[in-house]
Write a structure and sequence with these properties.
flat; three-stranded antiparallel sheet; Helicase, Ruva Protein, domain 3; about 50% helix; 8 helices; Tetrahydropterin Synthase, Chain A
């Protein structure tokens, strides 16, 4: 039986349509042999009311928020999009954008929104470094060491995988908060882009 190779763009398309997490989308696509409509059904059965098909509705409304850290040495601009101007002006939606901007200000290593955005050549270069570091380890554990280190490195540079620093979020990740907001608003919540400024960098 040939397994269908799941493309990153299909995972992204399914996430955009359902607001479900990346791994859940990937599993559902694998289960449905790459059929997006079937994958949406699978997600709806597994996650119930939390998931709805947002269709091809593109997130064309949204908000741009900023955060300037005390001392004015670090600042962040972020764009978070949704489907309607009603949600774009919703207090919870705006607060989410501001909280994520503050998270970025406190996370100097964050450079990408999702793992899909990290260039393959950068991942490959990082893997090569870890392979060299693990060269003296037994062969059967090398691969595990490399993939563990690569995973930790990705978590450090990918925004959606960041655990929110503020204790009020109880260790939830940006992705979890985004998914909760998507479920609550019934809209496609998309962190479109961000830029972090630091004096002298």
């Amino acid at each position: 039986m040939s397994t269908v190779e799941i493309q990153a763009k299909d995972v992204k398309a399914l996430r955009d349509r359902t607001g479900a997490g990346m791994m859940d989308c990937k599993k559902a696509l694998t289960e449905s042999a790459g059929d997006i409509e079937k994958a949406i059904e699978i997600l709806r059965v597994k996650q119930g009311k939390k998931i709805q098909d947002l269709g091809e509705r593109t997130a064309t409304e949204g908000t741009i928020q900023s955060y300037i850290h005390a001392g004015a040495k670090v600042g962040v601009l972020i764009e978070v999009d949704c489907n309607t101007d009603f949600v774009a002006s919703n207090d919870e939606f705006v607060a989410f954008a501001k909280d994520v901007a503050m998270q970025i200000a406190a996370s100097p290593t964050v450079s990408y929104i999702s793992r899909d955005d990290v260039p393959e050549e950068q991942k490959a270069a990082e893997s090569r470094v870890y392979e060299q570091e693990a060269a003296d380890k037994p062969e059967n554990v090398r691969e595990k060491i490399v993939s563990g280190k690569l995973d930790a490195w990705l978590k450090g540079i990918v925004l959606l995988e960041q655990e929110m620093h503020h204790p009020k979020f109880e260790g939830k990740t940006v992705q979890q908060l985004r998914d909760e907001l998507t479920a609550k608003t019934g809209e496609n919540v998309v962190i479109r882009r961000f830029v972090r400024f630091a004096v002298g960098q």
